[in-house]
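hey so i finally got around to running the thing on that chain from the lab meeting. sorry it took forever, my laptop kept dying and i had to restart like 3 times. anyway pasting the input first so we r on the same page abt which one it is
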Amino acid sequence: MTADAAALSVIPSDKGLEVRGNGDQRLDVRFDGRRIWSLVPARDGQVTGPSEYFVPWPKLLRPRLDGVVELVVEGPDEAMRVDCGEVSFGNGEGRVALLDDTGQPLTVDKGNRLERSFATLGKADKEVLLDGVERTLDVLDDYGLPGFLAFGCLLGAVREGTLIGHDNDADVSYLSRATHPFDVILESLRLERHFQELGWTTRRMWAAYFKAYPPRAAGEEVAIDVFGAFRHGEQLYMLPNVRAPFAETRLTPVSTVTLEGRTVRAPADPPALLAATYGPGWQVPDPTFKFRPPGITKRTLGGWMRGARRGQRYWEDTYRVRAAAAEVEPSAFARWVAGREPRGSLVDVGCGVGQDSLFFAGQGFTVLGCDYAVTGLEQAEDHAHRLGLSSATFQRLNLYDVRQVLVRGALLARSAAPTAVYARSLVDALDDHGRRNLLRLSRTVLAGSRGRLYLEFAPAPPQAAPSDANLHRADPDDVVAGLTAYGFEVEHREEQVGLAAKRGATVCRIVARMSGRPSS
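ok and heres what got predicted. didnt touch it at all, straight out
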């Protein structure tokens, strides 16, 4: 179905939207009158012709598009509106329902996740959220750190005095006493422990950024993002993505702003901090806004506080989308490894939802499953609990963070003494940096036992172009060269069709023993 208004036309399908015109302006997608998603065709889509774009539905939204909905797409100009009428998706049965488990409406946020936005909150829910913000600021103040509203909460307070309707998280920041990044990290860790001692639940995100959950007698948990800010040299750094020449007097002593009728602590100069955070256009509402910090900001804050997280959102979303159809049967590779590896302690790197880890545990191995994506690990832990397999445990591991790799490897080598490392469909999901860290981890873990590393991956020559930016087909000769450089001796190598469940796919299997004689 096509509808035209001014220079804009839209054709919806199960896969996405074909848009003609209006490539650089925001478009809001409305289902049954409610804004579901905002996009910029030229940024979020693929060019298919002159002023023509195909914009795929967000990954987490696509599986929910099953049924009929009244679809409207409109630009910032009220005259630019496309009414597509009743559109049928999937089987076309019933209405498209974008609701969470409690029946509350969901929208696509700036990270392309399905979340409940502030526009859907009633007065009572807003009061609970703002109570959490004020309690967080009180704890910071009592701890001796000047805390203030930041990011979306500050933006909404200064611009309209309200929470921004399309936003969905509550943000506060504080000015650190320290100036050296290492001391800032230690301070944040001590601060997090202080929250925990007061009965709060916390979740560490970055080295100087954590989520705090105020204790409540009942009801849904409220998460408050607590970001560290500090001066280093002539620059102010505020996690997760602000770096700017900024005088401390623009942050402290704190001032106040009004948010939803409440007086809440704010930086000394709110407009100046908002300009440093969002740029000069901060006063204009933009549901499609995405942070695009300069490369130096990403490299500096990432190196100090975060470590690289290439593709993390892709894998988190992948396991979230596939939760209902998660694999429970072990792979052919796992059965093959179990048939030749003596029972001992095994590390399953890139374990996904844990089906192979749980199989190994059932076969008598003590297993640690590691993965990048928390959503996969949560499913793995749930499966282990239901099966009563206490010999399988799971931990998050970021193979793009060399510090985490070195620490995790050393702890495993000392405490668990693994005799095998297993990695299926991982080599081809990592870039060169991640592959080196996989080998670095395996060398550290297996140095004491002189154990084996088992790899299975989809091979491809170096010149082959990947079909997905998050997949990196590996040349087996390069993998063998890397193994040799890290002190492994290849015992087995084969490449053929039919080794994996996916029909017609060529798979490479490599078994390498740790020799302890790295060539570099």
